[in-house]
Amino acid sequence: MDIQWMLAVAILLPLIAGILVFLIRHYQTRGLIVILTAVALIVNSIYFLKLGLPTEFTPTNEVWGTIITVLDYAILLFYIYAGLSLKNWLVLIFALTQIIPLAWWEFSAGASKALETITPAFMIDQLSVVMVLIISIIGSLICIYAIRYMKDHEDHKELARSRQSRFLFWLVMFLGAMNGLVLANNLLWLYFFWEVTTLCCFQLIAHDLTKEAINNGARALWMNSIGGTAMIAAMIYIYFNSGQTVEYLTLQSIVESGGTVAFLLLPVALMCFTGMIKAAQMPFQNWLLGAMVAPTPVSALLHSSTMVKAGVYLVLRLAPAFNPVLGVTVAICGAFTFFAASVLAIAQTTGKRVLAYSTIANLGLIVACAGIGTDLAMAAAILLIIFHAISKGLLFMCAGTIEHQIWSREIEDMEGLAEKAPLTTFITIIGMLSMFLPPFGMLLGKWVALEASYAVPLAAVLFVLASAVTMVFWAKWLGRLLQVTPRLGRKIESLSLSYSVPLWSLVAGIFAFGIGVAPVFKNFVQSAVSCVATGNVTSVVALDGMVKGWNLVLPKAAAATEVIGSYPVWPLFIVFAVAIVLPLLFISLKPQELRPVYMCGEQAGDVDTDEWYCAADVKTKLQLGGYYYKDAIGEEAINPWVYVIAIALLVIMFGVVGVSI
Amino acid sequence: MSNQVWIAIIAVIAAPLIGGFLAGIDRRVTARLQGRYGPPILQPFYDFFKLLGKSRIATSKTQFVWIISYLVFMIACLLFLVLQQDLLLLVFLLGFAGISFVLAGFSTKSPYSHFGANRELLQILSYEPILLLFALGVYTQIESFMISDIMASQTPLLASLWPIFIALLVVLTIKMRKSPFDIATSHHGHQELVKGIMTEISGPYYAMVLLTEWYELVLLLGLIALFWANPLWIGILIALAAFILELFIDNINARMTGGWMVKFSWVIALVFCVLNIAYWWIINKGVL
């Protein structure tokens, strides 16, 4: 297929499909369009693999540049309108800080003619393709999931007028904007797609139009507008410091400078800061936490394949242009977020908030890897992006399915879910285990990250602490799901196809990618690392020796036969199968082997009751609860510290950049 | 290759024998320290076979999965050690074993079991970072995470990593569930009847948990022996000395609270590890 058609399908098809689903008010037809778009996007993304990479493309017709400029202003004017109508001054201020410099730069400073000559507009390399695959496949599955979810959502809310069309419009269009973002090379185009994702995000978070939803949407908008402002500042700074030329206004030229062009350091730091805001790094974590009010497909999309992944993508992309001190400070910022978010996750009582903090934590880990900047750390970052997208996409869809079964998001309400909805629970448990335990991919990523982290020991220590804390919050939540009284004769629930197809696809993905991590590494990660390899940091590990059959090893750079670490994938999956899968399949307890639990003799009734004789021999239902340690590590207790440290780290980051200039 | 298979088979068979024997010594020494006569050395094995022979009873339909997983992952850890694999990955696998045991506790609706599971989690929170830092500390010395490289190195790790060694003794106390860190099991003097997660585990499954604990003991002593890998017999003697030391620590301390345990290990033991690693990082980089 021709490259321009592939780009058109990846970027414009979602927009067209979005408009169609917006216009068509018929549930089945709308669903069919979403499914067809999803299939087209997935097939198209696979075609990208056949391209000779890296390759570039600039549309011959200049009208596209004009359209993008017009839409830039349209979006910014909409932000101003939103700021005024919501009376949210932060939204207004940060819209103005974007539109005024941009207009001044393009028109008053007379740059508009020069800006039209930036080429190439698109740059397609292995890293972009990995991102396109994640966005197109996982994002599409989430859109399919949303078809049924939004119907149930509105049925439960008993809305007078359906707003599903509007929702699906923004959801499907989001995928196009994300594809554009990871393929764009021209910074102005990158900025445009960046703003479209911010806009989609705002619309989707505010979708339910409750006061909370609108407030949280506005918060996401102004926080990400700070990022937009920083990006504009970076572009203008580059333009004037390169003698009013457009030489460095492409990602490619910035990256190829490899941190040697002194005036690029500040703009790189600014854009890195933009990426960190979008990746919800502390102290900007609040917009992503607020995004929880939106219907669950939005969270699934924001957390797994879009939005936050745009943030880490940009940081990773720019990593070669870091100088060593900037790299170290970025690594420490990310590692701190990883640690602090993991600690805060322990104290959360709402399932989706735990997931949100876990996302923030893992993004922190990815940002930290980008900051460390060795080949090995980059490989870890890309592995984590891939596996996090699969597992988190699955977990959010599980959370949504659970919500539609018990109509609650609270972890305490999920008590004994293994009994009420065994199938959903089973899938959720797979998802959770895949987030933090061997043999799954996330843990592999963490393992690679830790082995690479010795270059920045402070980051390494924070990684270690965060890994331990991660185990605690997942285990606590798992425990609530698993806790059951063995009532006899429970039934497996049935799930609608729109739920079960995406869920099982991602479960299959977890196992397929987990077991096949060596080929994945060889075909995707390794070549993607070569796009973001820093060059200015020497690596101890030679990446091309890492794949050994189905397993991964870390060979010493000097002698390829000697290894400094090894991750035997197959044996670990066999251990997992023997430990969990085989017992589940082949051992089952007979009803007569079940007994009531030990209650010091105060148990009332038999195995299938959970009552006991309380004070004055009153029969009381046994109630158990989880620990959350809110007083010690709740948000109120430690957030002030977290903000102080996170802001201090950012100040240090810009401080070292200022000093090195 | 076949050599490795034999090593694996021997380790899987020998480890529980050694572990059970050590458990017998533990009970005997503890009894003497408390002025009792104590059971025969082989008593843990008698208990084990008695439990195996009992009929299967459970309070939950899924608990046994996690108990089997606890055992299987612990054996996997031991194999990683004897086959001289990646130390960091070994620690992560040990993490899965620990989490399995916690989930076994959570998967039944029993208050005692839940107390135990929650406290067990605090124990994981306390020892997991130390074990990971141990792996990083080893890296500062031999620039590798492979246990095979530790075995090959001629200078004992103890000389350069003694602060981490001390921290690891704290881990051993927590892992053996000894005072002052026997928070999760509360089995001081092995006399208390309601014993955390074990409350709802009986018969053959209880035997499996005992078996896992024996594997775990051997694994941890093996990790300690790595501090003097050449010649290995010195390392083994150090590990046995550490074991005996634990018995005394157990009997001269009172049980502390979970919060105290987390603070102790994060503030004191972790700082030992961090300073140790920082020192070697600076030396290796040649900053000073």
Automatic annotation (TrEMBL), chain A:
NADH-Ubiquinone oxidoreductase (complex I) chain 5 N-terminal domain segment(s): 118-154
Membrane disposition: Multi-pass membrane protein
Domain named NADH:quinone oxidoreductase/Mrp antiporter transmembrane: residues: 184-466
Subcellular location: Endomembrane system; Membrane
InterPro entries per UniProt: CPA3_Na-H_Antiporter_A (IPR050616), ND/Mrp_TM (IPR001750), Proton_antipo_N (IPR001516)
Signal peptide: none
Principal location: membrane
Transmembrane listed as a keyword: yes
Superkingdom: Bacteria
Keywords: Membrane, Transmembrane, Transmembrane helix
Any one annotated GO CC term: membrane
TM ranges: 6-24, 31-51, 63-82, 89-107, 127-147, 167-184, 221-240, 260-280, 325-347, 354-373, 379-402, 423-442, 454-475, 496-518, 524-547, 568-589, 641-659
Any Pfam family: Proton_antipo_N
Family listed: Belongs to the CPA3 antiporters (TC 2.A.63) subunit A family.
Name of protein: Ech hydrogenase subunit A
Organism this protein belongs to: Syntrophaceticus schinkii
From TrEMBL, chain B:
Protein topology in the membrane: Multi-pass membrane protein
Keyword Cell inner membrane attached: no
Record's keyword terms, sorted: Membrane, Transmembrane, Transmembrane helix
Keyword Membrane found: yes
Membrane spanning residue stretches: 6-25, 64-83, 89-108, 120-142, 154-174, 205-226, 232-249, 261-282
InterPro entries reported in the protein's UniProt record: ComplexI_Subunit1, NADH_UbQ_OxRdtase_su1/FPO
Cell location: Membrane
Example of a GO cellular component annotation carried by this entry: plasma membrane
Protein name: Ech hydrogenase subunit B
Location, primary (coarse class): membrane
